[in-house]
Design goal:
- Belongs to the 'GDXG' lipolytic enzyme family.
- About 40% of the residues lie in helices and about 15% in strands.
- The chain is built from 15 helices and 8 strands.
- An 8-stranded mixed beta sheet has the order 1-2-4-3-5-6-7-8, sandwiched between helices.
- Helix 4 links the parallel strand 3 and strand 4.
- Helix 5 packs across helix 7 and helix 9 packs antiparallel against helix 10.
- The chain is globular and about 75 Å long.
């Protein structure tokens, strides 16, 4: 009997390992085994978090937050950059100040980390590396913002934090204190951070109190709209590495509320009330996506939901949460823009539609589309999860900043 039990245990373990490791990895992805392991590890953590949530031990996002905590590094200066944690406008920031002498005033990047408005922090190893690298390569001041997170804080807290830090930093007196050229400041972010960067850039155009104009915005695979969570990229990449469709839905809904009814409505793509139907023109993928991304899919009009959710949680119809929802007129005058999209990413089509609409509004856009990459690729540049594609995309982003900022 002992032998049989051992065999059963072995078979179960093998099956479980196979289930985690053998995820369908797209054919054109480099280093597929590495990507499988990264993906498997992430799925294992999120499944454990789901079990802990189901057992009532902790909120699902708190379970995922353990990754953030495990990755934390304290602010550590090196020979090139002085690093410190401080506050701007009562919001925690990590500041990177280059030590190299500068001929004149320096450039600056205000950076917002990703993590679905629920996870992440400036002090995570991967973000600390990216912002330190940015500061060092560009000889630039970098402000990385630790905005408040859901589920403890919902929209608009995240947006308000990053906005007040940016607005504080853009004051002439603060820029001169850090030796920054007021004509060479940029906002940047990845994923949810790209969402916040796009929203901040839009809001600054409307704000008469801000004299300094942004030179650029850099959006790395940003999430930009809440209306249609069934775009071709959502359908195609529902189970791709790192960011599944169900996780995006969990992040989006949690940004606005912990009430599960919004998540359920978003999961079935029936959360938008008929009264808001005029907004769909801004995310109508049949007009805004190139043919090769449609892959023969035919656009169908949305199925409307009850008005109740939008009345309770108006945030998901707010352009500060969904930057694609502004009119064309409000896109004019936005700064020079960099957009990175990845083929195997649920958020791919958001970036494509925004790039298309910005160009149509006369904004100079550089849109890099990585056909062999998945969501989050830029942060996979450190061992043990180092990927060649991560280095390539990170370097391309830095290169763009160097040429345009």
């Amino acid at each position: 009997a002992g032998m049989g039990a051992k065999l059963l245990c072995f078979c179960l373990t093998a099956a479980l390992l196979a289930y985690y490791i053998y995820a369908p990895i797209p054919e054109d992805i480099e280093e597929p085994w590495k990507v499988m392991f990264i993906s498997a590890a992430f799925r294992a953590v999120s499944d454990l978090a789901a079990v802990a949530d189901w057992l009532g031990l902790m909120h699902y996002m708190e379970g995922l937050m353990l990754i953030t905590s495990a990755e934390y590094v304290p602010p550590t200066s090196d020979e090139n950059v002085t690093v410190m944690d401080t506050e701007f406008s009562n919001v925690a920031v990590r500041l990177y100040l280059p030590r190299k002498p500068s001929d004149g005033l320096r450039r600056a990047v205000v950076f917002f980390h990703g993590g679905g408005w629920c996870l992440g922090q400036a002090g995570m190893r991967s973000y600390d590396h990216l912002t330190r690298w940015t500061s060092n390569m560009l000889n630039a001041v970098v402000v990385s913002v630790n905005y408040r997170l859901a589920p403890q804080y919902h929209f608009p807290a995240q947006f308000e934090d990053v906005y007040s830090v940016t607005k504080f930093f853009l004051q002439r007196s603060v820029l001169s204190q850090y030796g920054v050229d007021p004509d060479r400041v940029c906002v940047a972010g990845d994923s949810a951070g790209g969402n916040l960067a796009a929203a901040v850039a839009q809001q600054l155009l409307e704000d008469s109190e801000v004299e300094t104009k942004l030179k650029a915005q850099a959006l790395l695979y940003p999430a930009l709209q809440t209306l249609d969570l069934n775009l071709p990229s959502y359908q195609e990449n529902a189970n791709k590495p790192i960011l599944s469709r169900s996780l995006v839905v969990a992040f989006w809904s949690e940004y606005f509320t912990s009430d599960p009814s919004l998540r359920e409505a978003m999961a079935s793509n029936r959360h938008i009330p008929l009264e808001s139907s005029h907004l769909f023109q801004f995310v109508n993928w049949s007009n805004l996506l190139p043919e090769e991304l449609k892959k023969g899919r035919v656009y169908t009009s949305p199925v409307y939901g009850s008005p109740e959710l939008a009345q309770k949680y108006p945030g998901f119809l707010d352009a500060r949460a969904a930057p694609l929802l502004v009119s064309d007129a409000r896109l004019r005058g936005l700064p020079l823009t960099y957009v990175l999209t990845c083929e195997h990413d649920v958020l791919r089509d958001d970036g494509f539609m925004y790039a298309r609409r910005l160009r149509a509004a006369g904004v100079p856009v550089t849109h890099d589309h990585a056909r062999d990459a998945f969501h989050g690729a830029v942060t996979f540049v450190l061992s043990p999860t180092e990927l060649a594609v991560g280095h390539r995309l990170r370097n391309r982003y830095i290169e763009w900043l160097n040429e345009n900022l």
